[in-house]
Design brief:
With about 190 residues, the protein is an alpha+beta fold. The protein is built from 5 helices and 8 strands; from the N terminus they run E-E-E-E-E-E-E-E-H-H-H-H-H. The protein folds into 2 domains: about 80 residues, Thrombin, subunit H; about 110 residues, Methane Monooxygenase Hydroxylase, Chain G, domain 1 (Up-down Bundle), CATH 1.20.58.1290. The N and C termini lie far apart (about 55 Å). It comes from Romboutsia weinsteinii.
Length: about 190
């Protein structure tokens, strides 16, 4: 077992290496959403260190590729499994909203960013749940949801829909309907 740029890698007999993520795996890369690992190795681009090892990532729901050094400090993790997605959906009705009555825009933005930086689905679902509650209260008071709330609702919802789409094997456009139906089923079964 050796280390390349701080990552433990195991060299194979042919001199190649086994990296942290394999070609064909789906991962979360920062706040870029779901990416597929297309290649692992050096890249042949002018001005790029050819001795450095990169992941070539293709964003699933956006155009373009990302070349990420395997020693990047950008957050990466594998996409949740089907079972994990199901467990998270079952928890949605019981997620406690995160209380934030902050009126200062910058402080509110920083508050939401902390949840995004965890890159955990449960934190994204907490943001969504909280902002939905805030939106309902605003509508009931004859007001509109603030721009910062709208912005982070869109980001968190997009990240959840992207990851759940891959985990559940359904189109991204169907994720919200799927979640809503599952929640109705959960609530119905709890009443009985």
């Amino acid at each position: 077992m050796d280390s390349i740029f701080g990552y433990k890698v195991k060299y194979k007999e042919d001199g190649s290496y086994k990296s942290m993520y394999k070609i064909g795996e789906f991962i979360i890369y920062g706040n870029n959403g779901v990416c597929e690992v297309i290649d692992v190795g050096s890249i042949n681009i002018s001005g790029i260190n050819k001795d450095k090892i990169y992941y070539t990532l293709k964003q699933i729901y956006e155009n373009g590729s990302i070349f990420a050094p395997i020693d990047t400090r950008v957050f990466m993790r594998g996409v949740i499994t089907y079972e994990e997605a199901q467990q998270l959906i079952e928890r949605i009705p019981f997620i406690k909203e995160v209380e934030c009555s902050e009126k200062n825009g910058k402080l509110l933005e920083n508050y939401y960013k902390k949840f995004l930086e965890s890159h955990e689905c449960i934190d994204l679902l907490s943001i969504i749940s909280s902002i939905y509650d805030k939106k309902d209260n605003a509508i009931n008071s004859g007001k509109k949801l603030g721009q910062i709330d709208e912005k982070f609702m869109k980001i968190a919802t997009g990240l959840i829909h992207d990851e759940f789409s891959v985990a559940l094997g359904i189109p991204r456009e169907e994720v919200q309907t799927y979640i809503n139906e599952k929640i109705k089923e959960i609530k119905k079964n709890r009443v009985i």
